[in-house]
Amino acid sequence: MKTIRRNNLDICADILRVSRGGAIKTHLVYKCNLNFNIVKKYIAGLTESGLLVKNGDRFYSTEEGILFIDRYDQLGAPLTHVGLIAYAEAE
Questions:
Q1: 89 vs 56, which has greater pLDDT?
Q2: DSSP labels for 33-73?
Q3: How far apart are CA 44 and CA 28, in angstroms?
Q4: Alpha-carbon dihedral of residues 54, 27, 62, 49, nearest 10 degrees?
Q5: Longest alpha-carbon distance in the chain
Q6: Domain 8-81, what architecture?
Q7: Position 69 pLDDT exceeds 90
Q8: DSSP state of 21
Q9: How far from the centroid of its chain's Cα atoms is residue 25's Cα?
Q10: Distance, CA of 60 to CA of 80 (rounded, Å)
Q11: Which helix (H) or strand (E) holds 25?
Q12: Are 19 and 65 contacting, i.e. CB atoms less than 8 angstroms apart?
């Protein structure tokens, strides 16, 4: 089986997808297949850029974060149809 590496934008999109309805850090780690140190760095960057917000112990995608996901998916959609990239949406 061929392993496909994700780039930074893929990881950001995964975190924002999982956070859409609210997610604790543990869920981000497991659902995005990352470790706690990596998730911590991405959370800091996404929060600083206004794409993610923390409320209590949960993280939520902001409206800008949801817009990022939508645009990111639109950008990659034509490539997935011709098999140039593999796309697996985080649940």
A1: 56
A2: T--HHHHHHHHHHHHHTTSEEEETTEEEE-HHHHHHHHHHH
A3: 13
A4: 70
A5: 42
A6: Orthogonal Bundle (1.10)
A7: yes
A8: T
A9: 13
A10: 27
A11: helix 25-31
A12: yes
Q: How far is CA 73 from CA 22, 38, 76, in A?
A: 20, 23, 5
Over residues 74-83, the pLDDT tens digits come to 887 666 555 5
12 φψ region: left (φ > 0), alpha (ψ -120 to 50), beta (else): alpha
pTM: 0.81
Helix axes 8-18, 63-81, angle to 10 degrees: 120
| Tokens found for residue 16 | 């924002």
